[in-house]
Automatic annotation (TrEMBL):
First-level EC class: transferase
Cellular compartment(s): Cytoplasm
Gene from which this protein is expressed: hisG
Organism placement in taxonomy: Bacteria, Bacillati, Actinomycetota, Actinomycetes, Kitasatosporales
UniProt-recorded name of the protein: ATP phosphoribosyltransferase
Keywords (A to Z) from UniProt: Amino-acid biosynthesis, ATP-binding, Cytoplasm, Glycosyltransferase, Histidine biosynthesis, Magnesium, Metal-binding, Nucleotide-binding, Transferase
Similarity annotation: Belongs to the ATP phosphoribosyltransferase family. Long subfamily.
Domain called Histidine biosynthesis HisG C-terminal: residue spans: 207-278
GO molecular function: ATP phosphoribosyltransferase activity
Pathway: Amino-acid biosynthesis; L-histidine biosynthesis; L-histidine from 5-phospho-alpha-D-ribose 1-diphosphate: step 1/9
Catalysed conversion reaction: 1-(5-phospho-beta-D-ribosyl)-ATP + diphosphate = 5-phospho-alpha-D-ribose 1-diphosphate + ATP
Documented activity regulation: Feedback inhibited by histidine.
Gene3D superfamilies: 3.30.70.120, Periplasmic binding protein-like II (3.40.190.10)
Domain ATP phosphoribosyltransferase catalytic: 49-203
Cofactor names: Mg(2+)
Length: 282
């Protein structure tokens, strides 16, 4: 069986299980379940701490896993990203009290507190900055107030918690992270079950990003309409019973669907419909 690691808790856990369910895999019904066997797909899922997943995969005990890009890089494990999953997005940045520093170039001799010691130490080393890094598990905003560090490095979403602590974000983002599929460095691409797994997840990503659009238009306006809805290869065009009219079907990006519908209506298209795509293979 293919052995796959899945986050057992945290912000990645629910979306990861939801995506796997959409991809046709059996998932756990209770959070206490640590292992789920899906005999129909010949897959065994192991629910592990997100921070540990890259390490398990790198050891070869598990074939692939889902974790965060930040957790993969911070672990230092011999594992690599093979597919980005478009959820669990976050930005990793430095923050400090106003006037302390303008960016990493001013960190010389300072101490940076973070929960991601591996990422920060590498970032500083890559830029030739001589600064100390202290590891803290969570609530790093208080490290400056308590005198443990002059700078912190943490995940920043809205920045509200930093502002409430009297801190400001400085410098460019250290890392932009999201959920990713990882495998051991040096693993081959010819494992059929791994390829099937990746195809299924890619199908979910496409299905979430596109909708199917159907509409009717006059034949003389077809080229204009097709320019708006080119589809992936090309749209499907069928003649209607009423002479001079055709029906068109094409996949369009979901985030652009409303604008495309407006543009189609302006050139005379009617009966414009969109439907969700639940699964696909490209």
């Amino acid at each position: 069986m293919l052995r796959i690691a899945v986050p057992n808790k945290g912000s990645l856990s629910g979306p990861a299980s939801a995506m796997l369910h959409e991809a046709g895999y059996r998932q756990r019904k209770e959070s206490k379940e640590l292992v789920v066997i899906d005999p129909d797909n010949e897959v065994e899922f192991f629910y592990l701490r997100p921070k540990d997943i890259a390490i398990y995969v790198a050891s070869g005990k598990l074939d692939i896993g889902i974790t965060g890009r930040d957790l993969l890089l911070d672990s230092g494990a011999s594992a690599e990203e093979i597919l980005a999953l478009n959820f669990g997005r976050s930005t990793f940045r430095y923050a400090t009290r106003p006037g302390t520093a303008n960016g990493p170039e001013d960190f010389g001799g300072m101490t940076i507190a973070t929960s991601y010691e591996g990422i920060v130490a590498k970032h500083l080393a890559d830029q030739g900055i001589d600064a100390s890094v202290v590891h803290l598990d969570g609530a790093v905003e208080t490290a400056i107030q308590l005198g443990v560090a002059q700078v912190i490095a943490d995940v920043v979403e809205t920045g509200t918690s930093l502002r409430n602590a009297g801190l400001e974000v400085i410098g460019e983002p250290i890392l932009t992270s999201e959920a990713v599929v990882v495998r051991r460095h040096g693993a081959t691409d010819d494992h059929p079950q791994v390829q099937q797994f990746l195809r299924r997840l890619q199908g979910v990503l496409v299905a979430r990003s596109y909708v199917m659009m159907d509409y009717d238009c006059r034949a003389e306006h077809l080229e204009q309409a097709v320019a708006l809805t080119p589809g992936l290869e090309s749209p499907t065009v069928s003649p209607l019973h009423n002479e001079g009219w055709v029906a068109v079907r094409a996949m369009v990006p979901a985030k652009e669907a409303q604008r495309i519908m407006d543009d189609l209506y302006e050139i005379g298209a009617r009966a414009i419909l969109t439907t969700a795509i639940h699964a696909c293979r490209l």
